[in-house]
Amino acid sequence: MAELIDGKQLAKKVNAQTEQAVTELKTQGIEPKLVVIIVGDDEASRIYVRNKNRKAQQLGINSETKQLPKDTSQTELLKLIDQYNQDETVHGIMVQSPLPSQIDEAAVTRAISPAKDADGFNPENVGKLYANSDLNFPVSCTPKGIMTMLAAYDVQIAGANAVIVGRSNIVGRPMAALLLNASATVTVVHSHTQNMQAYTREADILIVATGIAHLIKGEDIKPGATVIDVGMNRDENGKLTGDVDFESASKVAGKITPVPGGVGPMTIATLMQQTVELAKWSE
Amino acid sequence: MAELIDGKQLAKKVNAQTEQAVTELKTQGIEPKLVVIIVGDDEASRIYVRNKNRKAQQLGINSETKQLPKDTSQTELLKLIDQYNQDETVHGIMVQSPLPSQIDEAAVTRAISPAKDADGFNPENVGKLYANSDLNFPVSCTPKGIMTMLAAYDVQIAGANAVIVGRSNIVGRPMAALLLNASATVTVVHSHTQNMQAYTREADILIVATGIAHLIKGEDIKPGATVIDVGMNRDENGKLTGDVDFESASKVAGKITPVPGGVGPMTIATLMQQTVELAKWSE
């Protein structure tokens, strides 16, 4: 049986470090502040945002939620973002997805100041990531959290064959950049890939972020591989389940994340960590 | 024998289109202008810059070369770039590599306005490329030129297995992004990769950009593959040669670029094309 990569436990450790960093910043007169903007009344979004808020408050981060009506225009939203960009007490800004159809998500992403980009989605930050810049800049929280997990579980990255299933801007692409920067051989496979298994079966590190429940089974995994499951799907009984079939996969993998309790908690912990980093870097 | 991908011929076609576009822009009162900044007296750089200048002038592009002494400070260079950023008659700016050691190349890259970034190296443009933005933005000329070659020679990209050898910011990384955006399965291999041949032998499209003469031989290539050689090395007799051993590779590949006469001419043609695009987008 594979060793379990316990995201919940690791998130606790990361959160404790974040709490400590917040305490230190406060002694220097800096109170890290995160603003989360939510447009409309999507129920899942509300729950996510409430969880982020609660976690921020637990860690001593000043967290503000700005709830906007679902008919908010793009101009209004961009104006609000600009106000927070100018506000020196705010260190991190994020806009909860999904956004109503009248708003262009890419434009919102570009509007958030790169220095306050809690999600790491601004093209300037993405470009720095991709070019492996040695400056300080924020990075998409899910793949950044996965890097923390790999480090905590002593997974060798340099020279490893890393395969990423899925090419989203939030997970697959920044994950590829982070692993390439860390000197893995990196392959990105996706819906157009022919014979996906030929790639996944060779992976020393397999990251799965497709939104397709149980796409990856034990037979698709190299024995001893590290398997990271980014999926968060509901099965027919409403139970949370991953993109990896845990039961068969955990018999083949060397290390594996569960769903829930794997990548999820680490993503929120990383958002908190990154908010505090933004506050530090703003000094 | 493989079909030859004739970069010299294709560059002529692209240049003819660029010349036509310049003529059209001039009827609208826009004269595309490219500024090339060169710091110091590196002989190879001077030749590159002279060739760029000559080509620009042939195509009707207003081309200015700014030669700075090799002891130019970073502050002076950034100030000059800013002047060109402000100058409305200038559409494209590029700074020739290599730069003297007192100058931080990454800082120069960030200083050039994204809207005038003829080389496509500014992080904001890199981020747009990597996130597959649907806006207009410049892209690193060598990989952009390779995409033009693949299209001209009817190479199927979506679903193909593309392997890139080398992970530089100028070629390997933007090449990976372009091919991923075009729905290839993309693998980046590099100096830390174990058993490189295991990857190259499976590639339908193989892009080689390592600076190691004849790294890739016929036996490393999948029969029928398209092989793009970005290498520009001098052999013991001073003759220009690629990263691919053309003699053995051309017996296995389906399509292959020669060196010289492959990627090289397309890079300059793409720089000219992109300068004119920047002028168009500035309207």
UniProtKB/TrEMBL annotation, chains A, B:
GO BP annotations listed: L-histidine biosynthetic process; methionine biosynthetic process; purine nucleotide biosynthetic process; tetrahydrofolate interconversion
Stored Gene3D superfamilies: Leucine Dehydrogenase, chain A, domain 1, NAD(P)-binding Rossmann-like Domain
Subunit field text: Homodimer.
Domain Tetrahydrofolate dehydrogenase/cyclohydrolase NAD(P)-binding: 140-281
Superkingdom, natural source: Bacteria
InterPro entries: Aminoacid_DH-like_N_sf (IPR046346), NAD(P)-bd_dom_sf (IPR036291), THF_DH/CycHdrlase (IPR000672), THF_DH/CycHdrlase_cat_dom (IPR020630), THF_DH/CycHdrlase_CS (IPR020867), THF_DH/CycHdrlase_NAD-bd_dom (IPR020631)
Pfam families found in the cross-reference section: THF_DHG_CYH, THF_DHG_CYH_C
Any one Gene Ontology cellular component term annotated for this protein: cytosol
Role, per record: Catalyzes the oxidation of 5,10-methylenetetrahydrofolate to 5,10-methenyltetrahydrofolate and then the hydrolysis of 5,10-methenyltetrahydrofolate to 10-formyltetrahydrofolate.
Protein name stated in the entry: Bifunctional protein FolD
Molecular-function GO terms, alphabetical: methenyltetrahydrofolate cyclohydrolase activity; methylenetetrahydrofolate dehydrogenase (NADP+) activity
Keyword Oxidoreductase tagged: yes
Sequence similarity: Belongs to the tetrahydrofolate dehydrogenase/cyclohydrolase family.
Catalysis: reaction(s): (6R)-5,10-methenyltetrahydrofolate + H2O = (6R)-10-formyltetrahydrofolate + H(+); (6R)-5,10-methylene-5,6,7,8-tetrahydrofolate + NADP(+) = (6R)-5,10-methenyltetrahydrofolate + NADPH
Binding site for NADP(+): G166, R167, S168
Segment forming the signal sequence: none
